[in-house]
Design brief:
Helices cover 47% and strands 0% of the residues. With 320 residues, the protein is an all-alpha fold. The structure holds heme C (2 copies). One heme C (HEC) binds at residues 123, 232-233, 235-237, 246, 249, 257, 259-260, 262, 267-269, 276, 279-280, 284, 287-290, 292, 303, 307.
Length: 320
């Protein structure tokens, strides 16, 4: 090219531009030839792309009929075409991924990983067996866990929310079937019926804990809460609750997580006293945060109010 600063893009434009080149005396014939060659290469390029797309579509088509993606079809609740599938793809798959493995396209924009329903436990539970009740899941789906970046979906009807609850529970159950099948491969005593039964139990819970709040006198004195905190919580949350007690904790999938700094971090499950009660009593499954089944109701409330005081958010009307 003779003049590097000549508008090279004129080659892409039609006759007018080429005529301009003629006037400038820049070897017009070459330019025509170049333009022609480029358009021929372009056609080849388009043809190659078309062939690649056709071949991929063919293989994807084969796969949907083959064993790899046919597994969800074994379950009517999550198979393509079901109500749950449509609702999930439209409202949830961008973050949780089309098959619910937490690998949706929008996850890159989030600080908190969307739940992988196949492999991870649910975290926001009101039970002592680490399994959420339907109410827990309705709370998450309809009202969100906004500090954990799980958005509320108030537009969903009760019926659609209930279908989505079935959907995520079913994905979780299928995940258990996979894990158990792997674990018991070669074990002659274990039948697929047994595995199906255990997997069903892993997503079925009993009654939730009760949340009876004691009288107001419990909310005015934090000394007993502080003592309990020193005994049961500082090993991880640190003596002042700043999350500096445990080095490099991992979640169940082996990803590094942070112990919550209770004085400044957002409380992901919700910071109202009843949500705090559930987290402290039931723990946060899938993370090192343990359940506290042995404490009395009063002790858990003392911890709730002490934790609120660390957060600088005592209940209205409560003196510190
Ligand atoms: C903008 C991204 C985004 C969208 C859209 C989204 N989620 Fe989530 N979801 C998340 C994130 C992030 C978490 C993890 C939150 C945490 O750990 O605090 C989560 C967690 C969850 C959990 C786990 C709660 C628990 O107890 O562990 C459920 C259930 C859930 N989402 C269901 C849904 C459903 C159903 C939809 C569609 C209606 C949906 N999500 C849409 C980002 C999203
Ligand atoms: C073995 C370590 C460990 C101990 C002991 C522990 N925690 Fe935690 N705690 C964690 C971790 C890790 C998290 C963050 C979990 C997550 O990423 O969702 C957490 C989170 C929390 C949260 C925030 C939950 C949310 O919704 O975001 C509260 C509140 C909390 N802990 C209170 C307590 C109290 C009170 C005690 C003592 C009774 C306690 N923790 C004992 C490790 C611990």
């Amino acid at each position: 090219m003779k003049k590097a600063n000549h508008p090279v893009k004129t080659l892409d434009e039609k006759t007018d531009s080429l005529r301009l080149w003629d006037i400038s005396g820049d070897e017009p014939t070459n330019i025509h030839v170049k333009a022609q060659q480029r358009s021929i290469r372009w056609e080849y390029f388009v043809a190659v792309i078309v062939v690649i797309i056709a071949v991929s579509v063919f293989f994807v088509g084969c796969q949907t009929k083959g064993p790899i993606t046919s597994e969800p079809a074994m379950s009517p609740t999550v198979s393509p075409g079901s109500m749950g599938y449509e609702l999930f793809q439209a409202n949830c798959a961008a973050c949780h991924g089309t098959s619910g493995r937490g690998d949706g396209i929008a996850r890159m924009a989030l600080d908190v990983a969307p739940r992988d329903f196949r492999n991870e436990p649910f975290r926001y539970v009101s039970t002592l067996d680490s399994i959420p009740t339907r109410e827990d899941l309705i709370q998450t789906i309809k009202h969100g866990r906004v500090h954990g970046q799980m958005p509320a979906a108030p537009w969903l009807s009760d019926e659609s929310t209930s279908i989505l609850v079935d959907y995520v529970l079913e994905l979780n159950r299928l995940g258990w079937v996979d894990k158990l099948t792997q674990e018991f491969t070669g074990d002659e005593e274990m039948t697929s019926q047994d595995i199906a039964e255990i997997a069903f139990e892993r997503v079925t819970t009993e009654e939730p804990i009760t949340l009876a709040m004691p009288g107001p006198q419990f909310r005015t004195n934090f000394t007993r809460g502080e003592t309990l905190f020193m005994e049961s919580c500082t090993s991880c949350h640190g003596p002042s609750g700043k999350g500096d007690g445990l080095d490099m904790p991992l979640d169940d999938l082996g990803r590094p997580i942070k112990v919550r700094n209770l004085t400044s971090d957002p409380i992901r499950g919700g910071s109202d006293v009843f949500e705090l009660y559930k987290r402290i009593r039931c723990g946060v499954p899938g993370t090192p945060m343990p359940a506290q089944p042995a404490l009395t109701n009063e002790q858990v409330w003392q911890l709730v109010f002490y934790t609120r005081s660390l957060m600088g958010q005592p209940q209205p009307g409560i003196e510190r």
